[in-house]
Specification:
Number of helices: 12
Shape: globular
Largest sheet: 11 strands, mixed
CATH architecture of the largest domain: 3-Layer(aba) Sandwich
CATH superfamily of the largest domain: Periplasmic binding protein-like II
Low-confidence stretches: 1-25
CATH topology of the largest domain: D-Maltodextrin-Binding Protein, domain 2
Strand content: 15-25%
Helix content: 25-40%
Radius of gyration: 20 Å
Order of helices and strands: EHEHEHEHEEHEHEHEHEEHHHH
Length: 341
């Protein structure tokens, strides 16, 4: 697991396929259950929605059509975690930050309390939050956002909460504008707001929306100082930090320190472990289906991301069994209480 007080330098590589091929198997896989489940996804406009549809297809193929996952459009992480609390979905997309907050009863769940029955299933993507501002706004650092009109995302969303938490930790309070992505991009273009926060596919992969913005408006990418990152980590240890390589975006000739999260799946502890086991089987064996959405998914090292980039939340028993069966060394803090009984 990553130390949340240091910078994440995880890479998604094709080494996963070699790892699985050479890792020892200690048990035969269980028989696939015959069951209908609901997978809480994201907004249908998100690039992740197509990925979730591919995961559903891969799960069906891998289980011989035994596991039939209906992909449900939702408000993403916070919405999915609430749906899990209500028993309405068996599996859902979640950021590491939102999952940690739900598990510990922080942020949106301070009044509702901790959900000690939610489990981490898998981490599949690194998602840094990029702070982009107009170059003519006179803003050189996150500190300069104080009092400025700025979009951190849709109010109440996991991404918006992350950005606001980080800025609050260093004593910065912009005039937040709750906007959809398209609205925020338009407002930056016409100068109604100075900038926006946008999660990107990976630290070294530029976000398509931000590239589109930079094609029409001269912008710059903001970077937290090492001292600011240390302050953020002290006050908000559930946030993950990344380094965006230089020249990933225009006008970015130096590495940029940013905050963010890993994206993955979460599930209630009550979800059948065999379903989660077959999810791991599907993500491993049906990469051609995932690759139909984006070739990126054929190369991601899901094991590395899950074990090194996981939130401080116990693994689901099904994920734990799959990883153990394939020789993974699982940190004690990720071992689910169900495995200790």
């Amino acid at each position: 697991m990553i130390a949340f007080s240091r910078l994440v330098r995880l890479a998604a590589t094709s080494a996963f396929a070699t790892w699985v091929a050479t890792a020892p198997a200690f048990a035969e896989r269980p028989e696939a259950p015959s069951v209908n489940i609901t997978l809480g996804a994201t907004s249908s406009s998100s690039s992740f929605f197509a990925f979730h549809a591919a995961v559903s297809k891969a799960l069906s193929v891998e289980s011989g059509e035994g596991i039939r996952a209906r992909v449900m459009e939702t408000g993403a992480s916070v919405d999915n975690l609430n749906l899990m609390r209500q028993g309405r979905i068996q599996l859902g997309h979640s950021t590491s930050f939102a999952l940690s907050q739900s598990y510990f009863g922080k942020g949106p769940w301070e009044e509702k309390g901790a959900d000690k029955d939610v489990r981490a299933v898998m981490s599949f993507n690194l998602s840094p939050q990029i702070l982009a501002v107009r170059a003519d706004a006179g803003i050189a650092s996150p500190k300069d956002l104080e009092g400025k009109s700025f979009s951190s995302g849709i109010q109440g969303s996991s991404s918006a909460i992350e950005v606001q938490t980080a800025l609050d930790a260093i004593g910065v309070t912009p005039e937040y504008q709750s906007s959809s992505l398209e609205d925020a991009l338009t407002k930056v273009q016409d100068g109604r707001i100075v900038g926006l926060a946008k999660s990107s596919p990976a630290p070294e992969t530029p976000d398509a929306s931000l590239l589109r913005l930079q094609a029409s408006v001269d912008t710059r990418i903001l970077s937290f100082t090492d001292e600011q990152l240390a302050e953020i980590q002290e006050k908000a240890p559930l946030l993950v930090t990344f380094v965006v390589p230089p020249n990933t975006y225009e006008n970015q000739d130096k590495p940029a320190n940013v905050i963010g999260h890993t994206s993955g799946f979460a599930a209630p502890a009550s979800t059948d472990p065999d379903i989660i086991y077959y999810l791991w089987e599907a993500m491993t064996n049906q990469r051609d289906i995932l690759g139909e959405v984006n070739p990126h998914w054929t190369e991601v090292d899901f094991v590395k991301l899950t074990l090194e980039g996981a939130p401080p939340v116990p693994l689901h028993l099904g994920a734990y069994r799959w990883l153990k069966d394939h020789g993974a060394d699982i940190p004690d803090k990720l071992v689910p209480p169900e495995a200790k009984r």
